[in-house]
Amino acid sequence: MATNFIALVRGLGPVPPPFAQPTARAGNLYLPIPFRKSCKITQVDGAFYYLINYRAYPPGTEVESFRPEMLETHRALLEEAGRALVDPADFTGGTALTLAKQIPAKTSETLSLPAGPAAIRHLEFQLQAADLAQALRSTVVELEFDGGRTVWCPLGDFFSNVNGLDPYRTWEREARADGTLVCRWIMPYQTDGRLRLHNLAATPVTVNLRANVSPWQWTKASLHFHTCWRTDGPYPPRPVRDLNFVDVTGRGIHVGDTFIVLNPLWSWWGEGDEKVYVDEDLDRRFPSHFGTGTEDYYGWAGGEVPTRRDEFSSPFLANVRVGGQTRDWPAGKEPFTHGYNICTRTRSLDATPFARRFKFDMEAFNMIATQDAYLQYALVVHWYAAPGAAHNRPPLPEAAAAPVPQTEDVLKLPQQGMVPYATPVREIIEFENIKQVETSPGLKGGPQHIGETLPPYQWSQGALYFGRAMAAGNWVTFTLSGQSRPKRLVVHATQSYDYGILDSSVNEQPVAEGWDGYAPTTHPGKPLDLGVHAPQDDQSRLKFVVTGKNPKATGYFIGLDAVALEDTEETEISAEAREFLETDVFDARPRREWPQLVGLMKRPWGTAAMAILWNPGTSDQAATLDFAAVGLDPQREHAVWSYRDHRFLGFTRMGWTSPVLPAGQFFGNGVSSSAAKPRNAGGNYLQRVAANGDMTSFFVMPYQDNARINVINTGPQTLQVTMQIDSGDWTWNDNSMHFHANYRRETGIRTQGTPWPGAKADETGYSAPGAADYRFLTVRGKGVYVGDVLSVSNRTAGWWGEGDERIYVDYLHANGSGSTSKPQHLGTGTEDYYGYSFGSGKPFASPFVGQPSSIGERQGGPTVNSRVRGLDAIPFDRSFKFDLEIRKWAAGALDYDTIALWYGRPGAVALVPAADLAQDFKAGAQDGASAGTLADTAGDGKWSYHSSSHANPSAAGASTALPPPETPSHLTVQVRGRPASARLG
């Protein structure tokens, strides 16, 4: 087919509307163009923007390639389908269920559906309320099919109507001028279903509902209908970030979405690109579909700031609302996009199927980057999925109940001082505002106001210090007064085509050299970390010397924006952690449950880490935060920061468990053992559990000056505890190391299943191969890895342990760079690593490996594996990482509890969530828990056999009762004196 492309997509060529039709400054072609082997598209005579999507079918699928004469052959069918798309008929058959009722404030009404298999074929709503705008947001529709919730969404957002009623019509949904909201998506279910309407507002709402339900044939290919909704606080214009609509695990089809933007200004807000990931493209970390702008994805075009004249609706697209809000806008001035902007798209002929994973992101890119250019977003996504599919978007009742955000609410943020800046820190000093400035002869400088002249880049306070250096050797010195303690100094400088190369010093001490200020265009450069420096006479002097220029640069000028002063106690973080956090942005919503995700903690290295608050009050119980439950991507590796004690804790997927080290796990006995048999006798040459329950560790644990051991009862009942310690002389030298045991727990790890070699999918039911890595341990520093314990709770039957271990030794260099692509040790399966063969069903113990508990090769339940590395210990000089592939033969879920055992030189740090109980010990002492001290009874600094208890620290072999955690209880042992070592039993 050869035709004018613009005419083709606007319905003026061989393909008639509505399969090709115009929208605002654009056109869209939906006619399927099948091809068997290949399809070539060429363009001549001028370039313009376009998007082309295609769907690939499995090999062997019979496809009849497109021929132009097909348009004439099937003209009657096209005309019939076109009429149905443009003027869709409401389904009136089946059983009509109605609900006409006033729903009081903070209550719900439920409509039970007929027994299945059946399907909702038509849904129709009308709302009446004193505040209709609020009712559209606070009236939530919830659908449950076959025992699972699949839809939770404010009614207005479901129908792309927010803050008021805006009529439109697509094939699947419409909002009529009389307020009727119609949904024509078919929603099948197998056995039962129910529809609930929640009135989360403070006033009643009257609802008229009609649902037509008819019989439906449920098969293995049938899918449930899903809708989820997400909103968040307003975002500043920079940094640009990806907003995640949804991340689905399972099989399904994406069929539509709505993008809602509240703009307090007038400008163009939507240049962000859509990124759609399907199946294996998530592993490749590159989108299956990478768009060219929000307006292009929603089927219209840019080129000018839109107005309400750009609103339209068509069978698959609607620009439901384009700002136009005049209520708080100057009279006579065009409001453009001021107010709510609502785009929706439904995917029917271009639906997106996925076999195991689907992720949809939209880039939040505001073309205006001034300090008041915040935007408020709400996202809705619709899809079908097979039973058992999971996603990362929980209900948000608090957000739905809150007043509908308005432009004045968003404008309050910059007025309250929430100014967007690339590195939010405690104190920022603007170079252009510093009064004490000295310059060399030949350099003249002063403030330069950037304003909006160079979007999309953002300078702090819209200005910088501009120094006109004329030659190498010119310099400028800034004196920061009122400095009382050491600070980390991070300089934000500017790059441009006529800027020179800088050396930097602090208080006359050189700290950085060779910073190249050249760039082809003017923009903020990467932050320059000058390190931690103590002030001299309450002052810090920053000197910048021009040492030359890039061959491409046309001058020696200097541009300095701001210097960030950061407290030093929060800046100790490994190079790996810094590198990870500098490449990711997190967004999440606080929750009321414990542990609580309290929001984003902006840390000194320039981006965001999750902040988690656990154990309210004085409780020392371990608590688990499920990432999916709070709207985070459970498959993504998240960085975790402790809000309570301001520590970087590490990286994890799925969820986070607060760091309390279970004694059973430490002694190789696991925490997944059944209640009927809580202890399993056995062990290895360094760990032992006796039949009577005594647990002993023979690991040597050296220390230089003092040591403390704390035992905390986190269970529901009182425990009788006896602790014994063997200690003696130890020569501490430069090669001595501390003993470490790092505990992790992840629950509900989803497995997709891996087929048996040679098995057919239709015979076994196993899905396609797929696995993720579980992180045992990551260490930065020098040490020796000496063992681990893996406790697995298999929630469903099926062999769980085929994952391969991956061990990386010294993969990071001193500067933090390095690669994890090639492990030094790549194993062949979990069972091989722990020294037995496939699916061992018998517990066993040996000097180095053991299985204290086993449920057999394919049963559901707990299994405990342990290994100590004595003759095969793994030394490392700089860094160490141990990953275990999570691979299970059948789809299901696993709970992992792990301990990683290692020695490390002082300063070595575990980057994964660690069992660092220092703050718990401190809190326990403050709460009145007593601490015992092992006395040097002989007075010679030598230690023989001692034991301690909570009641009588000096009585050998004494025991004490530890109450449950309602009254926090600690058993603490402190050891002080000369270098010594301890054996814990």
As residue ranges, the low-confidence spans are 416-426, 569-595, 598-609, 614-621, 643-647, 671-679, 756-771, 912-985
Report Rg: 32 Å
What oligomeric arrangement do these chains adopt? single chain
Query: How much helix, percentage-wise, in residues?
Result: under 10%
The overall pLDDT average reads 77
Strand fraction: 35-45%
Number of strands: 66
Topology diagram in text:
Elements: H1 5-9, E1 20-23, E2 26-29, H2 70-73, H3 75-86, E3 95-103, E4 107-112, E5 118-128, H4 132-138, E6 139-145, E7 148-154, H5 155-158, E8 168-169, E9 173-175, E10 181-183, E11 187-189, E12 193-199, E13 205-215, E14 224-231, E15 241-249, E16 252-263, E17 274-278, H6 280-284, E18 289-290, H7 294-297, E19 312-313, E20 317-322, E21 339-346, E22 352-354, E23 357-364, E24 376-385, E25 390-391, H8 397-401, H9 407-415, E26 427-430, E27 437-439, E28 443-449, E29 463-469, E30 475-481, E31 487-495, E32 501-506, E33 509-516, E34 523-524, E35 528-533, E36 539-548, E37 558-567, H10 575-581, E38 596-602, E39 608-613, E40 624-626, E41 638-642, E42 647-652, E43 655-657, H11 663-666, E44 682-683, E45 687-689, E46 695-697, E47 701-703, E48 706-712, E49 719-729, E50 738-751, H12 761-764, E51 772-780, E52 783-794, E53 805-809, E54 825-826, H13 830-833, E55 844-845, E56 849-853, E57 861-868, E58 874-876, E59 879-886, E60 892-904, E61 909-910, H14 918-926, E62 932-933, E63 945-948, E64 959-962, E65 970-976, E66 980-984
Parallel strand pairs: 7-14, 39-41, 62-65
Antiparallel strand pairs: 1-2, 3-13, 4-12, 5-10, 5-11, 5-13, 6-7, 6-12, 8-9, 9-10, 14-24, 15-23, 15-25, 16-21, 16-22, 16-24, 17-18, 17-23, 19-20, 20-21, 26-37, 27-30, 28-29, 29-37, 30-36, 31-34, 31-35, 31-37, 32-33, 32-36, 38-39, 40-43, 41-42, 44-45, 45-46, 47-66, 48-65, 49-63, 49-64, 49-66, ...
